[in-house]
Amino acid sequence: xxxxxxxxxxxxxAGKSTVAKELAKRLAYIYVDTGAMYxxxxxxxxxxxxxxxxxxxxxxxxxxxxxxxxxKDGEQVVLLNGENxxxxxxxxxxxxxxxxxxxxxxxxxxxxxLQRNLAAKENVVMDGRDIGSYVLPxxxxxxxxTADAKVRAKRRxxxxxxxxxxxxxxxxxxNIRERDYRDSHREFAPLxxxxxxxxxxxxxLTIDETIExxxxxxxxxxx
Length: 223
Known about the structure:
By secondary structure, this protein is of the alpha/beta class. The protein is built from nine helices and eight strands. The radius of gyration is 17 Å and the shape is globular.
């Protein structure tokens, strides 16, 4: 029997990672956080003093970065050249660099190869921006998860504030709108709803309600 894959796409702050993690846990599937992989590469660029406008340096640095995902005690561990960088890749600086660098074709191709290899070997839940449309075009379930930009900004603000991170709601919303534009207008594999994906707007739902609805969709697809 072939492996079962679930693709969850959508813009920043829609709750993709939270939903994907919980689905994977309930289904006993492997969770592949593609965004974390791009963030690890972005951290590599920052550490090497590469600016967001230097695409040539980014492409060269791809060859000196090994980004892998392993699972320890049921949790995903992101490794950058063998170092666990889970605690270093969630800053606004890394988030911004990730958004910029992920539009680079060589960066994306390097990541896509690893992502497809994982899906060929395991039952996976994968979230990102081009999973159903490009990375896993034959995924068994495709969800396009979104919410109003103001709602997404407030969620991110609350999340950062709860961690004691000082931030501006207005700046976060501006960053989200900029990221939405970049992600949907990039030349290679842009953020787009796959034709056969289920459109799911969770602006008026809690994350738990969102998980329940999408879990039911997946269970129906699994028969």
